[in-house]
Design a protein that fits this description.
Layout: H1 2-19, H2 23-39, H3 41-55, H4 61-67, H5 71-85, E1 94-101, E2 104-112, E3 115-120, H6 126-136, E4 140-144, H7 150-166, E5 174-177, H8 180-187, E6 195-199, H9 202-210, E7 224-228, H10 234-246, E8 255-261, H11 265-278, E9 282-285, E10 299-300, E11 314-320, H12 323-333, E12 338-342, H13 346-355, E13 360-363, E14 382-384, E15 392-394, E16 400-407, E17 427-428
Parallel strand pairs: 3-4, 3-6, 4-5, 7-8, 7-12, 8-11, 9-10, 9-11, 12-13
Antiparallel strand pairs: 1-2, 1-17, 2-16, 14-15
Helix pairs in contact: 2-5, 2-6, 2-7, 3-7, 5-6, 10-11
């Protein structure tokens, strides 16, 4: 435990060095990371295979899916790192400029948060994703991965830390904690860790949020909805609903509820149910809908189903009379993560976007698009349903804060106070700090 505390303190000290890294150094380090993944691909997959073999039969199937790596997932790691390398360096970017008076200009500029703590369950790809984003944004990072992925996490971490070190990045800025006791320890370290990002189940995230004084950024559940409106293009609707549910059912952005306008239910639901059956999806329907589903082996939803996050091939289905009822149901039963409307009616689209209180609100598109990589952020730190700092799929902007830089020429406040005080101009300027 003493070693963990010491490593965290060293990482905190390294935040100053990380914030001062040049864009060239960071990009070279990211290229080295991507190359290291390629070179050590077989080693990574072998370590993961050991983790999977040990975990089989001991953890739920949806978590085992997240744990398992394959050639495509490793290739995605490389692509993700290179995507971050191609992003603009946010450190030092001027967000706003204000001329207070002649020769006195205030700049708001982006800067790293500092030391980021990431606690995650069976997701080994989190290591390269978040390490690359923290590197590009000038942050240090302390990882605590789940024990079920201990070999995968360790091999990835060691490979990547050696790669960044070879490119001139301080290796002490990256810490991997591995024991169960480390979780309790990290939650106490509000003096050193500036932000915690938990990645895992609802219960896991809630535990983290309830047991630390460190600011926590994350989402506690992924109860996502698809609403099929009476003005929907039904071919689009079938595709969007199915993709939202089956493309990766264990993901937090997979649809868990299907709301259907009652006007189209008689002819939409039978075909949708047929597609669910063909793809192994269990639909739990509200009572009364069975009249549209003659010949299907139906299962009725209970009250808990309207709030449940299944992370599996299960979906709860109900009808609503209009978009307003759909919005009300989503806002009262969802987790404010991701919601989709399928409709060709522009006014209905606008109503849905205006009134749905979620981080992501989509039109005629699968909920599965709610992802940092798909949003063009290079990779994803996590998804936040918070209403402060960052919301939705977070890339580097979720790892940044800002500082104010005031550039004067011997200016003093006494000249702007009292009876004959000078007046502030408070004029916006497009000039950038450092130019």
């Amino acid at each position: 435990m003493a070693d963990t505390v010491s490593e965290i303190k060293d990482a905190k000290l390294a935040t100053v060095k990380m914030a001062a890294l040049t864009t060239e150094t960071k990009n070279n380090a990211l290229e080295a990371m991507a190359e290291a993944i390629k070179v050590h691909r077989a080693e990574i997959l072998a370590a993961n295979a050991e983790d999977v073999a040990e975990a089989e039969g001991k953890i739920p199937s949806e978590i085992l899916k997240r744990l398992r790596l394959n050639e495509d997932k490793v290739s995605d790691m490389v692509e993700s790192i290179l995507g971050v390398r191609n992003l603009k360096d946010p450190v030092g970017e001027t967000m706003d400029g204000t001329v207070l008076d002649d020769g006195l200009t205030l700049y708001q500029i982006r800067c790293p948060i500092g030391l980021i703590g990431v606690i995650f369950e069976a997701r080994p790809e989190v290591v390269p994703q978040i390490m690359s984003l923290c590197l590009k944004s000038g942050n240090a990072i302390a990882f605590k991965g789940g024990s079920e992925a201990k070999r995968s996490n360790r091999v990835l971490f060691d490979i990547l830390r050696e790669a960044v070190s070879s490119a001139g990045v301080p290796p002490e800025a990256f810490v991997l904690m591995e024991t169960r006791e480390d979780i309790s320890e990290i939650l106490k370290m509000d003096e050193y860790i500036d932000l915690l990002i938990p990645r895992g189940s609802y219960g896991f995230v809630k535990y983290i949020q309830s047991n630390t004084h460190i600011p926590v950024l994350g989402h506690s559940a992924g109860v996502c909805h698809v609403y099929v409106d009476s003005d929907a293009d039904l071919l689009k609707a079938f595709d969007v609903v199915l993709d939202s549910k089956i493309q990766y059912p264990a993901a937090c952005n997979a649809a868990e509820k299907l709301l259907v306008n009652e006007k189209i239910a008689p002819y939409f639901l039978p075909r949708m149910m047929d597609l669910f059956v063909q793809n192994g999806v269990e639909a739990r329907i509200e009572k009364g809908l069975e009249k549209y589903l003659v010949g299907f082996d139906v299962k009725f939803a209970d009250e808990e189903d309207w709030f449940a996050e299944y992370d599996d091939l299960v979906i709860a289905v109900k009808t609503v009379k209009d978009v307003n009822e759909a919005i009300s149901f989503i806002n009262s039963h969802g987790s404010h993560h991701t919601e989709t409307i399928v409709t060709e009616n522009k006014e209905t689209q606008k109503e849905f976007v205006r009134w749905v209180d979620s981080a992501d609100v989509f039109i005629n598109a699968s909920t599965r698009f709610a992802d940092g990589f798909r949003f063009g952020k290079g990779a994803e730190v996590g998804i936040s349903t918070n209403r402060i700092h960052a919301r939705g799929p977070m890339g580097m902007e979720g790892l940044m804060i800002y500082k104010y830089v005031l550039c004067g020429n011997g200016h003093v406040v006494k000249d702007y106070a009292g009876k004959n005080a000078k007046k502030y101009k408070h004029l916006h300027t497009d000039s950038k700090y450092g130019e």
